[in-house]
Amino acid sequence: MNALIKKEIRLLLPSWSAALLLACAPLFWPPAVGTPLLLAWFGLGMVAVNSAGREFSLGTFLPLLAQPWPRARTWWTKVSILALAQLIVFSVFWALWFIRHAGHSRAASGDFFSQQLLLEGGLFFVLAAYSGGLWTTLLFRQMAPAILMTLLVPVALAVSVASLMDACSENTVGAVLFAVLGVYAIAGFWWARRLFLRAEDMAWTGGTVSLSVWPFSRDYSSSFAQSRRRRPIAALFWKELQLHQLTLVGVGALVLLHFVIILMRMAKHKSFTATVALECFWYLWLIMPVIIGCMSVAEERKLGVAEGQTCLPVSSRVQFTIKFLLAVFLGTLLGGVLPCLIEACAISLGSPNGTFGVISPWQWLPVASGALGLVIVAFFASTLARSFLQALAIAAVAIVGCVAFIVFISNPQTVFGITLWRHVLADVIGVPTMMIVLVWLAYRNFKEFHESRRLWRRNFLGLMAALAFVVLTSASLYNRIWENFTPMEPPHGAAQLTLSKPPHMRCDPRCNLTVLLSDGRAWLDNLVPAEFAFDDTPWSWVLNMMLHPLGGIRSLGPHQFIGGSNWVDVAASRLEAIGIRSDGSLWVVEPTSEAAGMSPEPAKIGDESNWQSVVGRWLPLSAVLLKTDGSLWGWGTNSWYDWHEGWPLHWPGLRAFKPHRLGANSDWTQIFSLGHIFYATKADGTVWTIAGSGLVPATNLDSTFSQTKWRSLVLIPECGFGVRDDGTLWVYDAMWIGNSHLIGHEMVQVGREMDWEATAAGFQRLVALKSDGSLWKWDALRTVPSNGSRWQSPSVIANTTPTRLGIHSDWVAVAKDWEGMISLAADGSLWYWPDERYFEDSSLLKISGRPQFLANIFAPVK
Asked: Which CATH number belongs to the domain containing residue 705 in this structure?
C-alpha cells in the first residue's frame, strides 16, 4: 500500500473509530432520527477536522508540504481517504436506523415522511461537514474554533433557508435546503483546496506578537497588586482563562446566533423543518462542555508547556484543582445554565421553545447536570490525550461508554436468577461513583503522565474496579445482604390465644383491621401503606422511602379494644366501626376528633335486637346487614364525597343515615363482600349481587360455593380460596364480567392435607394456616395473558408446592391485604408479610421476606 495512504489511514483511524461508535446510536436510542443523527453528524465533523487538524497538532504539516511530489497528489489522497471514511460511517448509521425503524409502527416512531426527509437531508449535512472540516481547519489552524464553525455554519444555513421559505411546502423547503448545502459543500471544498495548495509555513518576520490581555489581569492594570503568596495561583487562573479565550469568542458568536434564532421563532413558522431547526438549535450548546473539557489538559501538552508547570512553586494538586474547577464552572455555565437563561429570555419575549415549555429551576437541573457530566468526561479524556483532537475522539468514546453504563444500571439486572437491582438504586450509587472515579483518574493522569501502555492499564483497571463496586454495592443493598446476619424472626411471647377457639380477623381493601376474639372482645386498628405514612417534610419522605421502600403498612391508631365484651360481628374503617352484639343490637363507633381517633365507647343505633351480621364497604361508605329473620338491609350512601388521600373530607357519619330494607325476601342466609361489591346468598343456594338499592342475580355462580360449609373463605377478583369444615383447602376459578363476579364451575382441592384452619390471598400470593400453627405460602401465581393479568388456573395452583412462611408455629389467625398478609400470633402480636412481587417493580430495595411488627392487641393503649 502507498505510504501516503497508510499515513492518512493512521491519521484518521482514532477519530474514525469514535465516529463509527457514535453512528451506532440508533442501537441504544429510541426509534427516532433526530438525536442519533446529531451524534453521527458530530462524529463526521470530528473526522473531517482531523484530516488536516492532526497535521497541525503533530507538527507534520510543513514536512507534508515539502514532500517530493505535487501538492495536488497529497490533496487528492487526503480528501479521498476522508470521503471514504465518512461514507462508511454514514452508511452504518443509515443501515442501523432502518433496522431499528423497521420494528416500530408509524405512530410509535413519529411522522415517517418528516423523518425520511431529515434522514436524506443528513447526507447533505455530511457533505457540509466534509468540506467545512477542511476549510475551517486550514483557515483557523486552531481546532476548537474549527470544530465549532464546522457545526455552526450548516446549522445557520439550514435555519435561514427554513425560516425564509416558511410559506412553501416541505418538499420545496427540503429541495432548496439541500441545494444550498450542496453549494456550500462545493464552495467549501474549492476554498479548502485553494488554501491547501497555496499554504505557506515559514518564520514570522512582522515583529513581536503578543496575545490580547484580559481586563483586570496583571498585564492589563499596572496598579494591580497581590501578595507574594497568591501570585502563582492568580497566574494559573489567568493562564487557564487565556487557554479558553478562543472558545469564549465562539460562545459570543453562539449567543448572537441563538438570539437571532429566538427572533425567527417569533414568526410562528408553519414549516415542520423550520420548527425543528429552530427549537433544536439549543442542542449545539452541549458541544461547549466537550470542547472546554478537551482543551483543559491536552492542549497544553500539544503546546509543550505541560511539563514546565511541574517547576512552578505550586503543588500539582492545586494546579489540578484550579484547572478542573474552572473547566467545570465554564462547561456547566456555558453548556447548561446559559442556554436556559437565553430560553427564559425567549419566553419573556413571547417566543417559547417547545422543548423547554416554561423555564423553571427544575427544568434547568437536568440540562445543567448533563453539561456537568459532559465536561467531567471530556476533562478525563483530555488527561489521556496529547492533543485537543485526540481528546475529542476519546471523549466521544467515553461519553458513549458513560451513556451505555447509565442505561445498564438504569434497567433491572438479573444474573443466574438473582435480581441485582431495580430502578434508581444503581443510578443513585453508580453515577456519583463513576464521576468521582473519573475525577480521581484524571488527577492521577495529570500528575503522572506515563507511557501509553501503563497509562491505559491504570485507567482501565480503575474503571473496572468502579464498575465492580457499583454492581456489588447495588446488589448487596437491593438484596438486603445484612439480613443474612440477623435472626429470621424475633421470639414471640407467652400464648394467650389458641386455635381451639380461634379469633376471627378481617382486613378490608382499605387496610381496616378487626380482630374478634372468642370471648366477644373486638379489637380495631386503622392501617395505611408505609409510603403514605410519612409527614410533609421532604427529608422524612426520603428516610421513609429508604427504610420502608414502598413495602409494609403502619398503624395510624388508635389500636385498642372497643367497649363491651359480647360482640358477634364487627366491620371497621378509619372513620368509624359497626358492631353487632350477642343480644342482636346494632352499634357504631365514631371518631371524637382526628387527633384522638375513634372513641372506645360505642353508641347504640335504634332499639331493634335481631341483627345477625354486617359487612362494610368504604368506597363509597356503606354497609349491608342481615337480620335473624332473613331480611337484608342497606345502610349508608352510594354517593361520593370530597376525597383527600383516600378519605372523605366531609363525611357526616353513618348515624346521619337510616338502615333501609333491600328487597322483600326473607330467605337470605349469608352476606359477604368482594372488595367493594356486596353479595348475599339465599336459602336455595343462589347468590345475588347487591347493586345500589337493588339485587341482581349473580349468574353462573357455582352452587357448591354457597352450599358448602366453609371454615374460612376469601374471594379476590380472579380466584376464590376456602377451607372446608373437614380441613381441606380448595381453589375456585373466578373472573370479572361487567358488574358481576362470576365464579366458574372448576373447583380443585389443593393438596391432600386435611389440617388447614384458615386461608388468605392477596396480589399473587396464597397463604394458609395449618392446625399446628404453621403458615404456608404459594408464590408467583399470577400470569399475564394477552387480555390482561390474572391468577393461574385452579389446576396449576393446586399442583404448586407451598413453602413454609416464617419459623414460628404459634399463629392463630391470618387475614389478607392486597399488598401482603397479616398474621396474628398466640401472644397477641400482629405481623405483616409484604408480597415481594407486588412491590418488585416499584421498590428502591427488595422487599424483605421477614415479617414487620404492627402491634400487640393486648398491649396497653398509649
From this structure: 2.130.10.30
Taking alpha carbons only, the member of 423, 425, 117 closest to residue 271 is 117
Asked whether 297 and 386 are in contact (CB, 8 A), the reply is no
Same structural domain for residues 624 and 722?
no
Strand partners for 621? 618
Q: Are residues 655 and 775 in the same domain?
A: no
Place of cell 352484639: 581
Q: 522 to each of 525, 565, 832, how far by Cα in Å? A: 10, 7, 20
823 and 775 in contact (C-beta within 8 Å)? yes
Query: Is the pTM higher than 0.90?
Result: no
Question: 788 to each of 130, 718, 736, how far by Cα in Å?
Answer: 53, 11, 12
Indicate whether 717 and 686 sit together in one domain: no
Domain tally for the chain? 3
Each residue of 698-750: pLDDT tens digit?
Answer: 544 555 555 667 788 777 666 778 888 889 998 877 654 444 445 555 778 88
Q: What SS3 state is found at 36?
A: helix
Q: If DSSP codes are grouped into helix, strand and coil, which group holds residue 215?
A: coil
> What is the CA angle 213-215-216, rounded to 5?
115
210 forms beta bridges with: none
Residue 184: HSE in the Cβ half-sphere, 13 Å Cα cutoff: 26
Burial status of residue 611 (CB atoms within 10 A of its CB: 0-12, 13-18, 19 or more): buried
pLDDT digits (tens, 9 = 90+) for 199-248: 876 544 444 444 445 454 444 444 444 444 557 778 788 888 888 887 88
Contacts of 547 (CB under 8 A, 6+ apart): none
Whether 525 and 601 map to the same domain: the answer is: yes
- Cβ atoms of 214 and 220 closer than 8 Å: yes
